């Protein structure tokens, strides 16, 4: 679980999510464009209009201490840039409630949480928003309040009729979908964790990760309300879904990843500020350096690398860095999706699910640049032994390489900026 402070953000799996708004508040959603405004009345989803015409967002209603939403990230229309999660009280101030939002993956694991702890007289707020980034989705903790309730919040996102009281023009409403009775409720222990006010500072993440680990090591916890089976974007079903793990430290450290990360390939994300010589290795069963994940002097780096969580023991990682840093272990579904022009900086992991194509690649760096491809097939949890070398250049790179059809996993190494796209053949 990633527990966020106001203004922070985190990648989330690009899968259907169940989103709960705690503390007895009413949940609502606005689907907005890149200009931050709805396209019409249908882009507001709440109790009185419980379904979006696209089917991507539904208001499921109250259940087990939360007001629940279904947010199907792969089904969100291309014209929607952000999915705004709002909470309203119906009149009373939010300052007495400490509004909390949490999102759950299809297997019931909590992937992100945010608690607004500094609300005062506001009666509605934007708790957070899902937004597109690098072909995937991130969640940002917003925590902005409105004294004039949901009507004022909706008006400031383009529904001016909401503030005047005039009904916005909307299509025929979608019949409400009752909360699935077959779905297991949120376990009481997790409900208590959600309702607990968030701490501040770096201690918050460590304390809450420890709480989750203690819960996971006890009796089996019923999953959060979720669909019967995960649906990954673009037909992607390679690699297991799991609760992302994050740790923040300073200096050279050894990290032992929790046992809830299953064996198989995962994404390791490393981020820090400033410039420093940084090395990140996995450790083998003799506690010696195994695979080199990060080796950079890039300023303010954010690198992603492929690692393999071993069978029968926990994944262990050694970090050599003098500054404060953040390390995350993510499922493969968190990788950016190559479904159009993609740009980045530093090492990365990318998913491709399209047809036969040429990889058009550009980079600007003073060092070696490589891109390897893995034909992962449908399903499974093991990387193939044979990789495909697509790019191997030094300095300024302008290349195109033949690429097999997806599903394909691309591993990119570059100490600089880059762009890529798949050119159909």
TrEMBL record:
InterPro entries in the cross-refs: Stress/Tellurium_Resist, TerD
Tell me which residues make up the TerD domain.
Answer: 25-157
A Pfam family recorded for this sequence: TerD
Looking up Gene3D superfamilies in the UniProt record yields: sav2460 like domains
Q: Which family does it belong to?
A: Belongs to the CAPAB/TerDEXZ family.
Q: What is the protein's given name?
A: Resistance protein
Native organism: Streptomyces tsukubensis (strain DSM 42081 / NBRC 108919 / NRRL 18488 / 9993)
């Amino acid at each position: 679980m990633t527990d966020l402070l106001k203004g922070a953000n985190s990648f989330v799996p690009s899968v259907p999510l169940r989103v709960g708004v705690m503390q007895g508040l009413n949940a609502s959603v606005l689907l907005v464009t890149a200009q931050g405004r709805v396209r019409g009345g249908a882009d507001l989803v709440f109790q009185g209009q419980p379904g979006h015409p696209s089917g991507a967002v539904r208001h499921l209603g109250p259940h087990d201490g939360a007001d629940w939403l279904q947010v199907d990230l792969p089904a969100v229309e291309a014209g929607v840039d952000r999915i705004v999660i709002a909470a309203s009280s119906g009149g009373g101030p939010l300052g007495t409630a400490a509004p909390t939002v949490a999102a759950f993956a299809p297997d019931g694991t909590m992937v992100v949480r945010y608690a607004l702890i500094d609300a005062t007289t506001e009666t509605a707020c934007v708790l957070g928003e899902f937004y597109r980034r690098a072909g995937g989705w991130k969640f940002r903790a917003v925590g902005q309040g409105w004294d004039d309730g949901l009507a004022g919040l909706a008006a400031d996102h383009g529904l001016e009729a909401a503030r005047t009281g005039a009904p916005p023009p909307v299509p025929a409403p979608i019949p409400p979908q009752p909360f699935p009775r077959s779905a297991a409720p949120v376990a009481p222990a997790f409900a208590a964790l959600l309702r607990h006010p968030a701490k501040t500072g770096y201690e918050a993440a460590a304390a809450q990760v420890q709480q989750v680990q203690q819960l996971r090591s006890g009796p089996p916890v019923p999953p959060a309300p979720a669909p019967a089976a995960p649906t990954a974007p673009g037909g992607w079903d390679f690699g297991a879904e799991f609760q992302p793990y994050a740790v923040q430290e300073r200096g050279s450290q050894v990290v032992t990843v929790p046992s809830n990360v299953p064996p198989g390939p995962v994404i390791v994300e490393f981020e820090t500020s400033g410039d420093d010589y940084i090395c990140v290795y996995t450790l083998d069963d003799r506690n010696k350096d195994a695979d080199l994940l990060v080796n950079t002097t890039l300023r303010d780096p954010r690198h992603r690398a492929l690692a393999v969580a071993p069978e029968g023991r926990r994944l262990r990682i050694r970090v050599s860095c003098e500054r404060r840093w953040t390390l995350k272990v993510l499922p493969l579904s968190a990788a950016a999706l190559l479904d159009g022009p993609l740009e980045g900086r530093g090492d990365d992991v990318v998913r491709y699910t399209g047809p036969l194509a040429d990889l058009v690649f550009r980079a600007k760096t003073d060092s070696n640049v490589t891109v390897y491809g893995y034909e992962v097939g449908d399903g499974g949890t093991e990387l193939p032994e044979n990789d495909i070398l697509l790019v191997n250049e030094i300095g300024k790179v302008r290349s195109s390489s033949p690429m097999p059809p997806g599903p394909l996993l691309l591993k990119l190494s570059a100490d600089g900026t880059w762009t890529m796209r798949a050119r159909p053949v």
